Amino acid sequence: MPVSLTPPGVPPSGLNILDLNRIRRMGETPEGLRAATKEFEAFVLYQLMQSMRKTVEKNPLFHGGAGEEVFEDMLDQELTRQLAHAGGIGIGEVLYRQLERQVKQRQSQQSPSGTVSHLA
User: Fold this and answer.
1) CA 33 to CA 37: how far, in whole Å?
2) Domain residue ranges of the chain, discontinuous segments joined by +
3) Would you say 15 and 43 are in contact if contact means Cβ atoms under 8 Å apart?
4) Band (70; pLDDT cuts 50, 70, 90)
5) Distances in whole angstroms, Cα of residue 61 to Cα of each of 33, 64, 101
6) Picking from 43-47, 74-78, 107-111, which range would have the lowest pLDDT averaged per residue?
7) Rounded Cα distance, 29 and 56, in Å
8) Mean pLDDT, to the nearest integer, of 63-72?
9) What are the tens digits of pLDDT across the range 5-40?
10) Buried b / exposed e along 44-60 (16+ C-beta atoms within 10 A)
11) Confidence (pTM)
């Protein structure tokens, strides 16, 4: 049975609960949508990185130990978050445009004058 080396309160997915709560409070504003889609892209990239790392064989003479595993996981989380915030691979941007259209459409249907307040 594998032992979880993730610190308490931090999900093993690489997502930070405090960041997710901050994004949730932003709501369906352009800034909230942008932050949510960047975090989603970081999550996808983190999962990709974890899958790739499993395919690489480590030499037991130079690798190993719980400290290295924790550091490597933290490094992957930060690398993928920085990659996503620097433009990523485009998943976040495509998702942002789609969500932006849906929010605009929903707001125009709810507004009697057809004006959009948040995402004009």
Assistant:
1) 6
2) 17-55+63-110
3) yes
4) confident
5) 46, 8, 53
6) 107-111
7) 41
8) 82
9) 444 444 445 566 777 788 888 888 889 999 999 999
10) bbbeebbeeeeeeeeee
11) 0.70
Q: Are 117 and 107 in contact (CB under 8 A)?
A: yes
Burial grade of 80 (CB within 10 A; 0-12, 13-18, 19 or more): buried
The rounded distance, in Å, linking the Cα atoms of 81 and 99 is: 20
CA distances from 17 to 71, 73, 79, 117 (A): 20, 17, 18, 29
Residue showing tokens 């909230």? 32
Considering only CA atoms, give the Rg of the chain.
Answer: 19
Amino acid at 107: Q
